[in-house]
Specification:
Blueprint lengths: L1 H7 L3 H21 L8 H23 L8 E4 L5 E3 H31 L2 H11 L9 H8 L3 H25 L9
Antiparallel strand pairs: 1-2
Helix pairs in contact: 2-3, 4-7, 5-7, 6-7
């Protein structure tokens, strides 16, 4: 294990982690070793230990570029820590509002272009579009004098059509907003 430790030893902060990871690899080797196979325990254990260490480094690479939104990036004139979320908070709301407005415009265009008048009416009533309060399927059924199951079928079909329209739109424009229906 010392040979493997020296092979991957980077700095003092990694030393304890590497010993722990190597120990885990050794435990796995002992638990999974099959003496009926023609391999020595030491060879098998060395490979298990090395695999554990490599998995540890791979996991570290995946998160090496991650940045916490709450990590201090600077301090203000009073010495208070400024975080990335503090800096982006106002811009984030602007982006969210703009994205919501774009999605709403797309939705209204897709409603008019892709749905039948009955499908459009059911979706508008169910989801409270056009400044209306959203209604339950039962309320929509009563208002349109149809069964609740028919409202459900119309709604499901219409949402499928709208989902495909949004997916088609998002494929045409990279970074375009997707609608979750």
């Amino acid at each position: 294990m010392l040979y493997l430790f020296k092979k991957y030893y980077a700095n003092n902060s990694d030393q304890d982690d590497l010993i722990s990871i190597g120990t885990i690899g050794l435990i796995k080797a002992v638990n999974t070793f099959d003496p009926d196979k023609s391999i020595k325990l030491s060879s098998y254990a060395a490979r298990c230990i090395e695999n554990e260490i490599l998995m540890f480094f791979r996991a570290g690479k995946k998160s090496a570029q991650d940045i916490s939104m709450n990590e201090a990036i600077e301090s203000d004139k009073d010495g208070n820590a400024l975080t990335l979320s503090d800096v982006l908070a106002s811009e984030d709301n602007i982006c969210e509002n703009l994205e919501a407005k774009i999605r709403a415009e797309h939705l209204h265009r897709f409603l008019a272009r892709s749905l039948t008048p009955r499908e459009r009416q059911v979706v508008e009533l169910r989801y409270g579009l056009c400044n209306r309060p959203p209604l339950t399927q039962r309320e929509v059924a009563d208002r349109l004098a149809i069964s609740r199951s028919y409202v459900s079928r119309i709604e499901k079909k219409a949402l499928g059509i709208l989902r495909r329209e949004f997916e088609r739109e998002s494929k045409g424009c990279s970074g375009s907003a997707k609608l979750t229906l």
